[in-house]
Amino acid sequence: MPESRGAGPAWLVLPTYNEAENLEPVIAAALANLPQSARVLVVDDNSPDGTGDLADRLAVAEPRIEVLHRARKEGVGPAYVAGFRHALAAGAARILEMDSDFSHDPADLPRLLAATEEADVALGSRYVSGGGVENWSKVRQAISRGGSVYARAVLSLPVRDLTGGFKCFRREVLEAIDLDAIGSRGYAFQVEMTYRAIQLGFDVKEVPITFHERRAGASKMSRSIVAEAAWRVPRMRWGREG
Fold this sequence. Notes:
Elements: E1 10-16, H1 20-33, E2 39-44, H2 51-61, E3 65-69, H3 76-89, E4 94-97, H4 109-115, E5 121-125, E6 132-134, H5 138-155, E7 167-170, H6 171-176, H7 187-199, E8 204-208, E9 210-212, H8 223-237
Parallel strand pairs: 1-2, 1-4, 2-3, 5-8, 6-9
Antiparallel strand pairs: 4-7, 5-7
Helix pairs in contact: 1-2, 5-8, 7-8
């Protein structure tokens, strides 16, 4: 695909915890859909299934892959923040985030990059015209859609899919957001990043995508993740994120 406008390459940040079954094919698919100059950064939280070791082997064979090892599992939020910092330090012009289990289609990466030619943040959205989900239970759909409706109402935002984790940020957005102040770990992290970007005056564009159930492995969804979003969202609204 064509190179995106910007001073540096695009970086895709992939947080992993026990994704050994998915990692190699998802990276191969991502690289096939990204510009040749792009880099993939695997951020592994010391996965007991050997995901980190596999990532190291892939990085030896493919110079476009880098690996960031973290000491323990702390949630997707801290993993992404660490990955964003690494990509920014390396000169990334665009930073993408995506699940590593094929719930996000790597074929949609070019569409997110293209959207940031005009917008500051591109968000892969399940809940705009043309978007959707596949192979989810009604309970899972209700939790996800309900979470977005709740966050939209509390934060008075126009974005329809606030809990989605398939995004592309222009470098300037992540430089402007105080990453040290981001305390969310699960779904709330996705809400908080979009909210902060809009607060700072950046333009967010929703790009319709179809979200798929993961190909292999176990979902990381838990009651604590849902609960965190429920109490953190109003704290964002009133400026008490800690």
